């Protein structure tokens, strides 16, 4: 479930065995766990350990680094600039780390960076948006098209003195294939006209593929299924303050139950460049359904 690494540096070079173990474990659906690699806040940045930094609407504060755009925060002016700089320092560091740890992943694409300062426990959202329920990641407005992977790197920056020790607590569910076997027979069929229209109207960034439709359906179906949420196999894992973790969230069933103050960097990655492309969700779903999904 958790594949631990003794690494304490954000930059390589890392030993060939370490790199090979990281890539193989990641592609097999493990959560790579780095307990000795804290992301350190500067003295003046500790003021960002404050849930009131969000605008109260968005789940997270996010930085679109390619456009230099910070969203979802109540901070403005100089404070917003320093907040953006902290998130950017994390995002750039995470990108360097992932490229050094996974040299075969050249061309991994850096997407948004987010800061999550709101306590997860007790946060109220609609069922579909509730990440305290087991799910695989799939985003309504961000199609992955030909099965592009969603890889995420997290850092827990909570102070150790925080409530409950400051750990971010997750549940990690069963292997993707087992989950997909249960759910693919029930998801509603792809409706091609809608994806085309959403693409044209700009509801989505580009057009959803059959793969995107299926992943969204699986995400929603898992969250809606109260029985599954209650009885599905899972393990409880804890990421303490000062730790980082890296996981393919489009494949690993996960639920975030508690914790505040995490940073997260999303990456996208082409299936064809994986060491074992057959393990990608699109390949698993194509095998199970006998359909071409992109
Ligand atoms: C999620 O991706 O479901 C949320 C993870 C987290 O914020 O810990
Ligand atoms: Fe998620």
Which band does the percent of strand residues land in?
A: 15-25%
Helix/strand class: alpha+beta
Main sheet properties: 8 strands, mixed
Shape: globular
Question: Which bin fits the share of residues in helices?
Answer: 25-40%
Oligomer: single chain
Strand order of the largest sheet: 1-2-9-6-11-5-3-4
Number of domains: 1
Low-confidence stretches: none
Overall number of strands:
11
Number of helices: 7
User: What string gives the helices and strands in order?
Assistant: EHEEEHEEEHHHHEEEEH
Bound molecules: succinic acid, fe (iii) ion
Distance between the termini: 30 Å
- CA radius of gyration: 19 Å
Provide mean pLDDT, rounded.
94
Remind me, CATH topology? Jelly Rolls
Task: Name the CATH class.
Answer: Mainly Beta
Q: Under the CATH scheme, which architecture would be assigned?
A: Sandwich
Put the structure in a nutshell:
This protein has 294 residues and is α+β, with helices and mostly antiparallel strands. It contains 7 helices and 11 strands.
Describe the structure.
The chain has one domain (2-289): Jelly Rolls (Sandwich), CATH 2.60.120. 29% of the residues lie in helices and 20% in strands. It has helices at 16-27, 77-101, 176-183, 192-201, 210-224, 226-231, 281-289; strands at 2-4, 31-34, 61-64, 69-71, 109-116, 149-156, 168-173, 234-239, 244-248, 254-258, 262-269. The protein has an eight-stranded mixed beta sheet, covered by helices on one side. A three-stranded antiparallel beta sheet has the order 8-7-10, with no helix packed on it. Helix 3 (176-183) runs parallel beside helix 7 (281-289). The longest helix has 25 residues, at 77-101. The two termini are 30 Å apart. The site of succinic acid has 8 residues, from strand 10. Residues 131, 135, 137, 249, 254 line the site of fe (iii) ion.
């Amino acid at each position: 479930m958790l594949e631990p690494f003794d690494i304490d540096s954000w930059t390589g070079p890392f030993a060939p065995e370490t790199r090979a173990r990281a890539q193989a474990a990641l592609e097999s659906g493990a959560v790579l766990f780095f307990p000795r690699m804290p992301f350190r806040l500067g003295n003046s940045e500790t003021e960002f350990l404050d849930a009131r930094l969000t605008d109260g609407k968005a789940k997270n504060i996010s930085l679109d680094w390619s456009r230099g755009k910070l969203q979802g925060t109540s901070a403005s002016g100089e404070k917003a600039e320093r907040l953006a700089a902290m998130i950017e320092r994390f995002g750039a560091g995470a990108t360097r780390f992932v490229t050094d740890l996974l040299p075969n992943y050249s061309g991994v694409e850096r997407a948004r960076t987010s800061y999550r300062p709101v306590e997860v426990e007790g946060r109220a959202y609609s069922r579909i948006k509730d990440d305290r329920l087991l799910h695989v990641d799939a985003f309504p407005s961000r199609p992955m098209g030909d099965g592009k992977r969603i890889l995420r790197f997290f850092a827990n920056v909570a102070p150790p003195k925080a409530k409950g020790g400051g750990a971010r607590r997750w549940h990690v569910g069963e292997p993707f294939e087992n989950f997909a076997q249960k759910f693919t027979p029930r998801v509603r069929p792809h409706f091609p006209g809608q994806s085309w229209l959403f693409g044209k109207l700009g509801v989505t960034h580009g057009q959803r593929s059959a793969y995107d439709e299926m992943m969204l359906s699986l995400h929603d179906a898992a969250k809606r299924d109260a029985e599954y949420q209650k009885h599905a196999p899972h393990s409880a894992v804890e990421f303490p303050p000062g730790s980082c973790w890296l996981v393919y969230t489009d494949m690993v069933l996960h639920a975030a139950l508690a914790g505040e103050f995490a940073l997260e960097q999303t990456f996208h990655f082409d299936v064809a460049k994986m060491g074992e492309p057959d393990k990608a969700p699109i390949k698993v779903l194509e095998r199970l359904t006998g359909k071409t999904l992109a």
